[in-house]
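Researcher: Next sequence.
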Amino acid sequence: MLYRNLIVILFVFAKFHSYQGCTIKKNKISLPCKEYDLNSPVRVKLSDQLAEISGISFYSRDSSIFAISDESGNLFKIFWDRKMKINKWKFDKSRDFEDVVNHDSSFYILESNGNIQTLNFSAKGDTIFKSKSVFPVSEGVDNEFESIYFDPESGQLVMICKDCEADKKKSVSAWNFDPQSGAYTPSPFSIDVHAIAQRIGDKDFKFKPSGATINPRTKEVWILASANQLLIVTDKKGTLKAVYTLNPVIFRQPEGIAFTPWGDLLISNEASDKYETSTLLIFKPQKRG
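Model: Next structure:
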């Protein structure tokens, strides 16, 4: 009888504290992620030169991954299925590089201050041509970005704020970047932080995105928040659809996120003092019943 009562208590506790997540985190018990088993990745160790990998982009032409490493000024091409062969190209001096997107033969690299560098290769693929777009900012205003993705419907690159002065704690805004004109405009994309805070039971919560991409199968936006140990899913406008907690043992410092065209989820972890090696985590879509 005592054992049965204990089971009932645990069940009620789980129902009361549950939300759409993927792991047990402190006192929060969450439901499993239906699309991917986020507790069972294929883990690939990366080389030391990618210890501070901060952004990734899948390259469909040869199934490789392009990446950047914070402050290195190098663009890396990772052949992760060929015994970790890595090519690299120097494009700048040390800066705070946060994310990379490949679109229409161009590579767009986001700096933390919102500036975007556009890289194009020569026909032989051995020379980089680059241009730089400067984010329009008022004097004395500090904004920080770590994530950028391409929205094929609007034809715009979307930069989600990590810490923008205008947002406070109520919302997370974004900016669009037009790859044709190089113009920045405020984006209609916006996340209601209160909706996330309600899911996780933390009224003082401040959401800090570290990577974002669009799921090609569902057209939803998947957003990493390394500092919050969260992965959230929204629609194209930023309306919250799911919140997934992340196991810190698996997701040590998740900064980069991408999808393959067939739906594999790719997440990159930076190395840390405790874990000396950066990693690439690969999650296969779960079969739908």
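Model: Helices lie at 2-17, 193-200. Confidence is low (pLDDT under 50) at residues 1-29.
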